[in-house]
Amino acid sequence: MQLIDNLTVVTMDQQRRILADAAIVIDQDRIVAVESAGELREQYPDAERIDAAGMVAIPGLIDTHAHADQSLLRGLGDQMHWIPFIDDIIVPYLAERDPADGVLANALSIMEMIRSGTTCFVSPNVDPRDDYESLTDTIGQLGIRAILGRFTMPQEGPDSSETAISVVSSAAEVMQRWDGTQGGLVTMWYGLDVPRRSGDTDHPEFYKAVADEARASGHGIVYHFCSEIEDSDYIDDHYGIRPAEWSRDNHALGPNVLLINGCWVTPLEIKILADTGTHLAHSPVANMKMATGILPVTEVLEGGVNVSLGTDGALNNNTFDMFAEMKTACLLQNATQKNAAALTAQTALEMATINGARAIGREDDLGSLVAGKLADIVLIDVRRPNTYPVHDVLSNLVFATNSTNVHSVFIGGRRVLENGRVVGMDESALLARAQERAEIVRSKLGFVTSNTWQTK
Ligand SMILES: [Zn+2]
């Protein structure tokens, strides 16, 4: 047993209690108590005591949109619209990538996530050609929770129920091989694509087969949705309906479905998402950087849709920092609604924790610090110039904290970050390897940066 002592705990429980002079007791991978420090010290005298004086504990942050395999390309996707971004960067990178580089990119991303308080992430569109053995080993070694949305595409040729079922069954076999591995840290989902532009395949039987299989096996589904004005207009023009109607008609909505972006949703679509229990991951930094659009977050939340947060990643964010994401989510809504209280720190923290847990179907286990849940805990050292003094801990967490305040991270009771250092990882060696391989990849694919100044 471990007793983390002398804390302020932002529980994110149903009453949203904030406990001063509190402690958290962990037994193996679960939280057994979150109460006043004095009481718990008496009740658990034999627990290993971790003094966390001056720290604030929050639930592990859940990044519901994180392309963890792209970090070797950080800095190469600036100033790009989504079509050249996909066609000129993502597609050639995936086609040419050495699977080991995909694993290395994930390791780099995960190291950054842990250092910035993220304990669980959803990686959409994980390439089927990746080395799943090494990838899942890396996830286990670093100790983070990962939801891998294995990219699954419709079959070539005509749409038929038999072919679709056969394609989805073979994907399901691979998914079952890796689902739940690394002591339950790895979860496999379907990463889909829906029609976004002329020439994209739209096989209704395929989407139905995925939906049936996912429902039967308990897998989730994740895909990019209504992100750009062009893809939203494409569905409108080509099918005469809105993207959410297309997704609903093609069995691609539901409580096990997480949509990404949704910048151009209409009131009709908000209602469809709410009625079907579909979740939406908001990525304000990437949306702003790529000039994608602006999700009307408060309208979507008021419409009854669960909205979580995601960074998108190293190419179009260009970090995996969920603290920056929370702050930016507030700033974007405030600026566009001309209302300084449009999106509050409270709501942003909910989106990054409990809403994220709900979005991945893990609300019973994750997203708040309460007895019985998994011990995914982040200790924030607020005794720093950027977070002092503390009048309002929530304000400091959302508007002032950054990754340098993250002192320790526990995932399932295991300490994966201690005093700002990732446990069990030679960070310098990993950074050196990432730089070396990133330069090889850049030169092989002929990628250039957008910098026009000379480097001498
Ligand atoms: Zn994405």
Outline:
The chain has helices at 37-43, 82-96, 99-115, 132-142, 161-178, 204-217, 229-239, 243-249, 267-276, 284-289, 297-302, 322-337, 345-352, 354-359, 393-400, 427-445, and strands at residues 2-10, 18-27, 30-36, 48-59, 61-63, 118-126, 145-151, 186-191, 221-225, 257-261, 279-282, 306-309, 377-381, 406-411, 414-418, 421-422.
How does this structure look, described?
The protein is α/β, with parallel strands linked by helices and 456 residues long. The chain has 2 domains: 2-59 and 366-422, Urease, subunit C, domain 1 (Roll); 61-359, TIM Barrel, CATH 3.20.20. It is 39% helix and 22% strand. The strands form 2 sheets. It has an 8-stranded mixed β-sheet with strand order 3-2-1-4-13-14-15-16, with helices on one face. Strands 5-6-7-8-9-10-11-12 form an 8-stranded parallel β-sheet. α6 links the parallel β8 and β9. α3 (99-115) crosses α16 and α12 packs across α13. The radius of gyration is 22 Å and the shape is globular. The chain starts with a strand and ends in an 11-residue tail after the last helix. 52% of the residues are buried. The mean pLDDT is 96. Residues 65, 67, 124, 224, 260, 312 line the site of zinc ion.
